[in-house]
Structure formats: C-alpha cells, structure tokens
Amino acid sequence: MLPLRSVVVLVALVSSAAFTSAATPPQTLTLQDLSNRPDRWPAQVTIQRALNFGASKLAAGQKVAIVEYNGGSELGVDAGNGQLYGIDVKDCDLLEAANAAWAKLTPEQRALEPKAVIEDASLWPAKVRCTSAFTLNSGKEIPPNQEFELLSIDRGGQVTLWTSEGQAKLSAQVAQTDVVARARELVTIDPAKRPARIANALKGKLVDPTGKRVADGNLEDQKLFALYYGASWCGPCRQFSPSLVKYINSIAVANPKLTVVLMSNDEKDADMLKYMQEEKMPWVAMPMKAMQESPIVYGYLRGSIPQLTIVDRYGKVLADSWSGNQYVGPKPALVGLEKVIKSGAAK
Predict the structure, then answer these.
(1) Domain boundary among 130, 158, 187
(2) Order of strands, edge to edge, in the sheet holding 45-46?
(3) Domains identified in the chain, total number
(4) Quick one: which of 15, 46, 175, 292 has the most CB atoms within 10 Å?
(5) pLDDT, tens digit (0-9, with 9 covering 90-100), for 136-162
(6) What's the CA gap between 161 and 147, in Å, rounded?
(7) Which residues of the chain have pLDDT under 50?
(8) How far apart are CA 12 and CA 9, in angstroms?
C-alpha cells in the first residue's frame, strides 16, 4: 500500500447547489443569471466607493475577486489580503463586468453547461480556481481563490483537486470552481485537437524494462491508457501481473492506440526494472519519484495495490480497481479493459 500523504477537510464558502441550466443562454445577464454560476462571474469586480469594515477597508477602484453570490443583494468577495468581505452588489460593478466578459463569448461558449463539462473529459482544463478554503490535517490553511491541478470530475459534480502542499487531494463541487468558464476556452477546439491530459502527464517520464528513457513520439496519438499501479514487493501484484501480461500480448498488435504503463510503487528503480524483466512486461514504466511529481496520474492512486485504472486520453476513468470507495482489486478492471478493447477504442 502506498498511502497518500495528507487527508483534507473541505471548508465550503459558497453554495454547492447545482447550476441552473437554461435551454437558451441569455443575451444579457441579470443578477439572477449570476446566482451560483461562477462560470458567469467576471474574474474581478471593482469597488465603486470606499467601504469601511472597522479594522480594514476596501478602497474605491480596488479590484476584488468573487467567492460567493446566490442572487441576493450581498456579494462575498476576497481582497487578496487573507480576509473575506460581504458587500452590497450596488457597491461594485458586478453586472457591468459580467456582461462585458459575456459579450466576448461565442454562442457555443455561452451555451456550454456544467453537465456537458462533467460528461466530456476533453473539456477538463489542466487547472481550475476554487472559491472555497481548505484546512489540511496538518493545520495548514489554504485560502479561497487559489489555483489547483484538476484531477477529475465525477458524475455527481464532485471535483477532485490536487495541492502540492502536502501532496493532498481536495474535494469541491463544480459550482465552487471556474471549471466551466475555463472549459469554454476548449469547447471551440476540435475534440481530436484538445490537449491530451494523460499524454502530457507521461511525457519525458517513461522508461523501458532496461531503464532507457522512452521517446514520447506517439503518446499524443494514443486513445487509451492502462495505468498499472504495482510493485515488486507486492504479493498480489506478482499474482496478477502474469494475467495482465498475457492479455496485453494477445491484443497489442490489433490495438495500437493503447499504451500500458507500470506506475511503480518501488522506491528503488532497480527493483522496478527487475520486476518488469522477471514478469516479462511488454510495456513502459513511470518510476515512483516521477509518478509522485505528476499530479494527474498520481491522483488516481487510491491507496491499495495492485490497482489497474483505464482512462481515455483526457483522463476520464473507464474502468478501475475501485467501485466507489471500495477496493475490488485489478480483475474487475481487467474485465472492464476487455470490454473497452472490444468496442474498438484503441484501434
């Protein structure tokens, strides 16, 4: 087992209510159109008059970021000084700034809804900003409006983020991030030309069973990735590896768009290479240190090995060794891989 280094507690500062979807996006935004819709909020708003909060002040003309707005008269803002403020919407240019940004979007960008982003991993940006604050178990506090690596989004709209502080996973809801706003930058790009998140995470970090660095030439063209988290010292890994090797050898030629990677849990590269050679693994590996420095692929590791995780080029999980929060082992994931292969996804 390779444990994650920190467990986190989420402190929500904004509503996690689902976004309200509209059949036709408005041409001009109203305050109600901005309610719990951070994808429609401007990056910043400008304070219109000096505001006194006793020990601190907001100056006229000062730029602040929004952390909460539920359609009422009060707006939650972050001045970037470690303090949050509740101000009246009339004391800033919220509506004007929102409409100025909205006017720059194409009809396709305006029509993009959270549900479409959740279901289409090709629209997931590499990073997102979150309006929530977090407290790590170490006591370290992460303030709102920070940028994080985006690991995944599940069907319920839960977003899994990664922070390099403590190498920890964080959880938020889509409504607490700007994931939809950032997805609008991708929606106008042909899906086949959108960034391959998994290929980018693997580039320059793979080695063959002899330890030689592998060229990244065809990674961008790959459609399917089988990430095998295992180690030489892991008995269950030793038991499962022959089955995976046998299956991959049987389908590799007919499925050239599949890349299999051993995600090593061996602290020493020499042990990893010996393991690959003894098991006659016909694939490449990412050493443990490189994996831990690659948030996207490290983020799939749930704690127990062997773990087999099948993802598409954008990072959407197609089969896994986990069912919800229950570890079910690598065999169900191998069955899932077989189904994906039969669909022609790796041709």
Answers:
(1) 187
(2) 45-46, 63-68, 74-78, 84-88
(3) 2
(4) 175
(5) 988 999 989 899 999 999 889 999 999
(6) 9
(7) 1-20
(8) 10
